[in-house]
Amino acid sequence: MDYMAFTKMSYGVYVVTSWADGGRPTGCTANSAMQVTSEPATIAVRINHDNFTNECIKNSGMFALNILGENSKPLIIGTFGFRSGRDFDKFAEAPEVKSFLPVVDDCIAHITCKVIDTMESETHTVFLGEVTGAEVLKEDAPMTYAYYHNVIKGKSPKNAPTYIKE
Amino acid sequence: MDYMAFTKMSYGVYVVTSWADGGRPTGCTANSAMQVTSEPATIAVRINHDNFTNECIKNSGMFALNILGENSKPLIIGTFGFRSGRDFDKFAEAPEVKSFLPVVDDCIAHITCKVIDTMESETHTVFLGEVTGAEVLKEDAPMTYAYYHNVIKGKSPKNAPTYIKE
């Protein structure tokens, strides 16, 4: 089995946000999200069991998909991708919190969802969310995972299934 | 709700293949696939209920994800994306069939999977497959869905959730 085959799949770069207990917003980076149906609109995202955001989505039943653009601040990826929100307020360093769901301000679009189904695997949960809101914030090319690796020279967090040991 | 937000998600371009009854290979195009876990490696793909490939995957319990490159023949997308395999042998026009699972020859990599879980939605099934084989076939940039739209000027089949009425 050639694991390099997995690196040929194309992804975007996202921050998936949710509410922690007590109404504190939190989130983590993700590269995998896909629209599953158009009518009603649903979105699937995949989150590692070890990510604090996973339990926050399970508890709150909600998540938002924040779509980063090529010109979104790289700081966002560092803040949301390489620290845990369990004991750290990622939003304090970052963006505005909108009232309906925590969303990251410096993204090109966000889609808010109510969880309607989940699929479990050994290490990750796939959440299926029915879209409750969607907004385009700015015109910028969506950041692809390839762009993140090749242009920004970013790395994969260890919890990502696409992480490859160096 | 601004449906344009959905167009900001990044995807690749794939042909998902499987066995039809009687051992005939078939398949359809897809833009959504994601690795869910790395150990054991699993892949999720999303296929419309109306696609013949959906029932073939359910019946055979297997699928292969064929990853197209920027230089893969556009004919493949036409053959697999805009006709039904129900009464048409897509492989007759196209590629070699390998013995372990139908795979499209002119792709940059393929990943073969055994279905281990499914998640249903109104119009599409998300299949979770445990990887049984993975192979890189050639060096070429993976075709992104944006490249397909912007450079090849391709359209979305009507069964794709990303299809937008003109």
Question: Nutshell version of this structure?
Answer:
Two copies of one chain form a homodimer. Helices cover 16% and strands 36% of the residues of chain A.
Features:
homodimer, 166 residues, alpha+beta, 4 helices, globular
Plain-language structure description:
2 copies of one chain form a homodimer. Chain A has 166 residues and is α+β, with helices and mostly antiparallel strands. In chain A, 16% of the residues lie in helices and 36% in strands. The first copy, chain A, has 4 helices and 7 strands; from the N terminus they run E-E-E-E-H-E-H-H-E-E-H. A 7-stranded antiparallel β-sheet of chain A has the order 2-1-5-6-7-4-3. In chain A, a hairpin with a 2-residue loop joins strand 3 and strand 4. The longest helix of chain A has 9 residues. Chain A is globular, with a radius of gyration of 15 Å. Chains A and B meet through strand 3, strand 4, strand 6 and strand 7 of A and strand 3, strand 4, strand 6 and strand 7 of B.
